[in-house]
Amino acid sequence: MTHTGTLLDQLAALAAEPVGVLRDGDLLTRVSYAEELGRLADALRVTAAAEVEARSRIELGPEGLSRRMGHARASHLVEQLTRASASSIASRLTVGRMIAPRATLDGTPLLALYPRVAAAVGCGEIGIDVARVITHNLEQAAPSCSVDDLATAETALVDQALSSSADLVAIQARIWRDTLDPDGTLPREERLHTQRSLRIGRERDGMARVTLDTSGVNLAEIRAIFGAYASPRITPRFRDESDIDPASPDLETRTNAQRGHDVFMGLVRAGHQSDATRPGPRVAVHVTVRENDLQTGTGVAWLDDVDEPIAASSIDELVCSGGTRKAVIDESGAVLHLGQTERYFTPAQQTALAIRDGGCAFPGCTAPPAWTDAHHALFWKAHDGPTDVDNGVLLCPPHHRLLHSGGFHLKMLNGVPYFRAPAHLDPTRAWRRGQQNRALTALRR
């Protein structure tokens, strides 16, 4: 171990050297050199972890290495020793099983399952990521092809990995997999289809995780839809590019993840609202609040099947969408008022608003009509605002929330929505005309 300690000291000294003083050529050499060292380190990680697993195999019982060290599994022991993540250790062990030397029951040595990959990993020619993608795809084809064909594919993929990126090797590995499999890709697609799932977890600290497992066919459609609507540089769907004011205080501020979330919720709401075949009344979520909390705007309210409460001041925003009904109770729990459907805009009124506004009416927003809620300019409850087109405006969920809680103001002039930003965003407090209807834009010119 003395040699290992000296080597680590040398590497630590090299890592401590500043790279900012290097010339361009020396910097590029350093990048390549560091990657070679990383691949050699990968070889050490994989072979050492595989040997720990071999010495901890089940048949050794309590005499196995991991059991003697107080761990039920080899992966747990390696995690403790390395402080690496469980997924990293799992990847090392998976590759290790594919490239570690084998032996028969009587101890006769055998080659690794994938000897060409093993040799390339051992001398630092390829890293763990490439080795895993090669062996993973070839393992899928192995039951259906000959040993010689598998060896040919392995050699070809390793040779390509010496000069191509891991992503390109992954593409070729999948091509080899499907070429070697005489049944083609259909059985695999059918198997993946049976594994599809969507799981909605319980919320923690006010947030819940939604997990979707889907096939490549569905993934392509999802990415196309999200790419069309989630990009911050998307050309407005109903407005000319010249209509957008670069100095507007309402420019896009959401992160990619936040935009993705809003696209997903917009699709869910649009699908539900457009489902004319579903029997029965439209699905509504009930929000329950005490009368005193509703009047003061303080306290909390509770949603169906959700553990965490919401602020009572958020109720009007939810009810505006038409998907939530408000239930007001007294201190004893008796229901004093249950929101009625008459406060919701009818489908015909929403169609008229869509024609007038062209989608979300907030200045600069490009959300299409199907992703919006009909909002009362004069609040239905607080200001006796009528539920008619002249008092309605279409808003996407992010801008709907911004209007309720972000300090923005809305007014209707001759049936047209105008918005005003708070002073800290727009010191001029100018009213900006909403709508993204191109026909009206052309008429104004």
Overview of the molecule:
It contains 17 helices and 14 strands. The protein has helices spanning 2-16, 24-54, 65-68, 74-82, 86-99, 115-122, 128-141, 147-161, 166-180, 186-194, 216-230, 256-273, 291-296, 315-320, 347-357, 397-405, 438-444, and strands spanning 102-103, 109-110, 197-200, 210-213, 285-290, 300-303, 310-311, 324-329, 335-338, 373-376, 392-395, 409-413, 416-420, 431-433. α2 (24-54) crosses α5, α7 packs parallel to α9 (166-180) and α8 (147-161) packs antiparallel against α9. It is elongated. The N and C termini lie far apart (81 Å). Residues 348-401 form the HNH nuclease domain. This is HNH endonuclease. Keywords: Endonuclease, Hydrolase, Nuclease. It comes from Glaciihabitans arcticus.
Terminus-to-terminus distance: 81 Å
Estimated helix fraction: 40-55%
- Please count the beta strands (DSSP E, at least 2 residues each): 14
Query: Averaging pLDDT over every residue, what do you get?
Result: 78
Shape: elongated
Integer-rounded radius of gyration: 31 Å
Q: What fraction of the residues are assigned to beta strands by DSSP?
A: 5-15%
Report the oligomer: single chain
Structural class: alpha+beta
User: How large is the count of helical segments?
Assistant: 17
For the biggest sheet, the summary is: 5 strands, mixed
Ranges where pLDDT stays below 50 over 5 or more residues in a row are 232-247, 441-445
Q: Strand order, biggest sheet?
A: 7-6-5-8-9
